[in-house]
Design goal:
The chain is of the alpha+beta class. Helix content is about 15%, strand content about 30%. The chain has 4 domains: about 1-245 and about 295-325, Collagenase (Catalytic Domain) (3-Layer(aba) Sandwich), CATH 3.40.390; about 340-420, Immunoglobulin-like; about 425-610, Jelly Rolls (Sandwich), CATH 2.60.120.200; about 615-700, Immunoglobulin-like (Sandwich), CATH 2.60.40. Helix 3 (about 35-60) crosses helix 7. The protein is elongated and about 120 Å long.
Length: about 700
């Protein structure tokens, strides 16, 4: 088998040589014959590249004489497009053949080709890795989708090399263009022009026979490195024997420091490879030779190509920029022309069993026209082919939710995990919960989550109440330091109870001025799967006892019960849960880290009945005068009980003009003067006045 392969390879090599395989040098010479001024400039550039390479040789990469330095190339992504010129015959090669050719390039330019193991020992240490990655363009110069393989029915498939034939070239500073043709009139297999030659921009391409592209279809494995060879030219490399198309005639040099002087080879007799200098093996396995056994670039050649791709000449330095990779579509994961799907699920990936969960699929690319939802497990998808739909899960558990989005170019699927939770006890009508129970039992659906011992938890208590005989109590003095106790409500249907309120009454005293208890109210819209903070007060402000502290076991007076209305705390969150039908609340209490806690009482949790001004007026006689006023105004109030009062003044636009004040008052007659510092200019203002959680708002007119 190996012998048969050798015979085939030998025959193809003879064909290759007879065909003058690469015609780059001849095309250069033909061009320079009519443009001698450009030849002079080109030779200057070549000399500059050789000098730069020489400096790299001394300092940056490994050579025979310097084993301690290694050239570290960068990673470069190069957009590539293939223009297939055909007349309807076999030259109209398949996409698979083009893709195979790109795969070969990526192996060769990243030293990933399996046959590197066959490289002879003198060159094993200096095999170069250019670190070039070639990707088929997925956006054309107009931003339209493409697969990077463009087919043109054109008689120029029989190529002559006239500059008028380069009609399909995309900007070479953005794309590496490869013309694939049926025949080339000069008898070659492929050619290109070296950077700096000065040819028209449209001719800054590679032209190659279809039979020399890839290893499948009309291609074959022996000729499959032809494109690697030509791209080496496109990035400034010349033949290893020099700038000519005459291998085997005279010994020459390519200007790269670690490639030995050579005549060049058409065959591949590795035992006869010391022609120019006795004892120095010539690199016939180099991609820039004509031998059929090419397997490598040297480190120096990789360095030279890296210099080229960073050079402004012919715009090579633009190819791998982030901007260009985006413009050509190759920076996108997968195919730019495919839709990119993004699943959005209601409020969270946790949801209630039996609830209708709103889901949406957003595609942000390439005009999708097909949607398909599917779920692992038992679920009802209301409209499985719509981008926006609803899903009902019959059972609790964990499910994978997926959406496929497609267009004419293909499809993309995204999946996520859904956690479905049993809704537990659900109350369809909102109510006021007063915790009145002579058996000290929690109301139906209410639960206690206890993190420590059974005795240290929320419990129904008859110690005191804001109304009636019972309330909820957390005995902070018995709790372990830093422990958490939670009282959780059943699920409520707010969706069918528009205009609902959420209020509660509480009483609390800190054990000492440095106590650091934590209290907060949270809401869940996914049956307790996740929680959002609705109310997290400063505990100094929260304390309702006189002076805020009580060193004894705190038992509140009637005046020390505070009404808290959370309906306007977080308007966005409120608006969300007032449109949900599975809403739970919980009251979270965390003991001081040092264990210096005190008692917290909770009562009259109200999910429906608005609090009127009549409740406010039960504990206070209030008056504001003069109103309208030209300057100062006074509020006068009479308290029947001790109270904590909070007040502020805001402009008609909501700007706080006089900031919040929080003070404690004893029973009796009190008055407070405002605007003594002339903070209020003529206009309309609002006084916000709160007594033990009861609120009142008064309009104030300040005239000229």
């Amino acid at each position: 088998m190996r012998f048969a392969y050798f015979l085939i390879a030998t025959v193809l090599t003879k064909m290759l040589v007879a065909q003058n395989f690469c015609y780059t040098s001849e095309m250069q010479d033909k061009w320079f014959a009519t443009h001698p001024d450009l030849k002079e400039k080109f030779e200057i550039l070549q000399n500059q590249a050789a000098r730069a390479d020489s400096e790299l040789y001394k300092t940056n990469y490994k050579t025979f004489g310097n084993q301690n330095k290694t050239f570290a190339a960068s990673n470069y992504t190069i957009p590539i497009v293939f223009h297939i010129l055909h007349l309807g015959g076999t030259e109209n090669i398949s996409d698979a053949q083009v893709e195979d050719a790109v795969d070969i390039l990526n192996r060769d330019f990243n030293k990933l080709n399996a046959d590197t193991t066959d490289v002879v020992s003198p060159f094993q240490a200096i095999m170069g890795n250019a670190k070039f990655e070639f990707r088929l363009a997925t956006k054309d110069p107009n931003g339209n989708c493409t697969n990077g393989i463009i087919r043109h029915y054109d008689f120029h498939s029989n190529w002559t090399g006239n500059f008028g034939e380069y009609a399909y070239t995309w900007n070479p500073s953005r794309y590496l263009n490869v013309y694939v043709v049926k025949s080339i009139s000069n008898g070659s297999a492929a050619y290109t022009y070296l950077p700096g030659s000065g040819v028209p921009t449209s001719a800054d391409v590679i032209v190659i026979l279809n039979t020399y592209l890839g290893s499948v279809g009309t291609g074959n494995i022996v000729n499959s490195r032809a494109l690697t060879h030509e791209i080496g030219h496109w990035f400034s490399l010349i033949h290893v024997w020099g700038l000519s198309n005459q291998p085997g005639l005279t010994c020459g040099d390519d200007g790269v420091a670690d490639t030995p002087i050579t005549k060049g080879f058409g065959g591949c007799n590795l035992n006869n490879a010391s022609v120019c200098n006795a004892g120095i093996v010539e690199n016939m396995q180099n991609y820039m030779d004509y031998a059929y056994c090419s397997r490598m670039f040297t480190i120096g050649q990789a360095a030279r190509m890296n210099l080229s791709i960073n050079n402004v000449i012919n715009g090579r330095n633009n190819l791998s920029t982030a901007v260009n990779l985006s413009l050509t579509g190759v920076s996108y994961p997968g195919n730019y022309c495919l839709p990119m799907v993004n699943i959005s699920v209601g409020q969270s990936t946790k949801a209630c069993r039996g609830a209708v969960i709103s889901v949406s699929s957003y595609s942000y690319n390439a005009n999708p026209n097909t949607y398909l939802w599917f779920v692992s497990g038992n679920a009802t998808i209301l409209n499985p082919t719509s981008p926006n739909t609803g899903i009902i899960f019959a059972n609790s558990g964990t499910y994978t939710l997926s959406c496929l989005v497609a267009n004419a170019n293909g499809s993309t699927t995204q999946s996520l995990v859904m956690t479905i939770i049993d809704s537990g006890t659900k109350i369809s009508s909102l109510n006021r919960e007063s915790f009145e129970n002579t058996n000290f039992q929690l109301p139906a659906g209410w639960t206690v989550i206890n993190s420590t011992t059974p005795d240290e938890k929320w419990e129904v208590s008859d110690w005191t109440a804001s109304n009636g005989l019972y309330s909820m109590l957390i005995a902070g003095e018995n709790m372990s330091p830093n422990s958490v106790e939670i009282l959780e409500s059943p699920s409520y249907d707010f969706k069918s109870n528009l205009g609902a309120h959420f209020t509660f009454k509480y009483a609390y005293a800190k054990h000492g001025v440095n106590s650091a208890d934590v209290f907060k109210v949270q809401v869940s819209m996914d049956c307790g799967g996740s929680w959002n903070d609705l109310f997290v007060p400063n505990m100094n402000d929260l304390a309702s006892a006189s002076g805020g502290t009580d060193l004894n076991l705190f038992v509140p007076k009637s005046s020390q019960w505070v009404l808290k209305d959370l309906t306007d705390m977080d308007s966005e969150l409120i608006s969300r849960f007032q449109n949900e039908n599975n809403v739970r609340f919980r009251f979270y209490f965390k003991e001081d880290i040092n264990g210096y806690g005190n008692r917290f009482y909770l009562d009259e949790v109200n999910f429906n009945e608005p609090v009127g001004i009549n409740e406010f007026t039960k504990s206070i006689d209030f008056n504001l005068f003069p109103n309208p006023t030209k300057s100062d105004f006074i509020i006068k109030f009479i308290l029947s009980d001790e109270a904590r009062i909070k007040y502020s003044v805001a402009s008609i636009s909501g700007l706080l003009v006089i900031k919040d004040e929080l003070r404690s008052f004893v029973p009796g007659i009190h008055q407070i003067s405002f605007n003594q510092n002339k903070l209020l200019k003529p206009g309309i203002y609002f006084l916000n006045f709160e007594v033990n959680g009861f609120k009142i708002i008064k309009k104030i007119v300040v005239s000229e």
